[in-house]
What we know:
The protein is of the alpha/beta class. It folds into 2 domains: 3-130, no CATH class; 142-272, Cytidine Deaminase, domain 2 (3-Layer(aba) Sandwich). The chain contains 9 helices and 17 strands. The chain has helices at 3-9, 62-72, 103-109, 126-130, 144-154, 159-164, 187-200, 218-226, 240-249, and strands spanning 11-12, 20-26, 32-38, 41-47, 50-57, 82-88, 93-98, 113-115, 123-125, 142-143, 168-173, 178-184, 209-212, 231-234, 252-258, 261-266, 271-272. The strands form 5 sheets. It has a 6-stranded mixed β-sheet with strand order 12-11-13-14-15-16, sandwiched between helices. A 5-stranded mixed β-sheet has the order 1-6-7-4-5. A two-stranded antiparallel ribbon has the order 2-3. A hairpin with a 7-residue loop joins β8 (113-115) and β9. α7 runs parallel beside α8 and α8 (218-226) packs parallel to α9 (240-249). It is globular. The model is unreliable at 1-7 (pLDDT under 50).
Amino acid sequence: MNIKDKKEKLHLSNSGLSPTNEILAYNHLGENVNVKVAGELPLTIKIDGEELITLMTLGTRPEELTLGYLRNQGVIDSIDDIISVDVKWDIGISEVITKNKNTKQILKKLEKKTITTGCGQGTIFGSTLEKLYEDTLPEVKIKKSEIFNLLAKITKYNDIYKEAGAVHGCALCDKEKVLEFVEDVGRHNAADTLSGFMWINNMSGSNIIFYTTGRLTSEIIMKSKHMGIPIIISRSGVTNMGIELAKDLNITMIARSKQRSFLIYNNKENVIFDE
């Protein structure tokens, strides 16, 4: 199925908001200064009228966030099952309409929940865990020089963080360039938005590198697996469970990355030390 066919079958509203607002603050000298602050709004996802969850988000790409959340949580198996996503900020709702309207079956998937450390989110449904081991990720090699090149290019992004702070950034990259970059108040939202972008565009993750400014916890490793991405790179650190899950899922895990240094926590054999 090509991208054009996919878009024709799915109706998406276009309800992205500006990521920042200007307010008056006071500096260390007591002087008035106009500064930008990151937005943060509640967005409640409803499926065929049934409330699923409320996320706190910047609101810049709410339709993709909604789709990516449903995908990464294993709530809906195929984007072809969705008719529309309609975001209405006046009531804080992202309304998802499905073809089958089998809401009872969907809600049954969500009965088992795990509270997490997520920013802007904080829940993993049982359906997320069930799908983790359904398939395996490919073995993909990456050169040390390619990692350094990507880290250098990433510094040109993070526009909202540079302007207002208070956000995490995530990116889809190949070995040459940054393909898509998203910022949100939580790394989970940014990751899910990228997942929604991939889903809409029928994009495979097999040759993609997932970059995040946030820590690599088990939830972020799960999202990488659901997106089919075998390599993950973080500017931040890792957790013990994140490492264990990366080993179980065969994800190459690189963190504490700076322009000229990084640490490999899993799959050292997939990194080629060419310089």
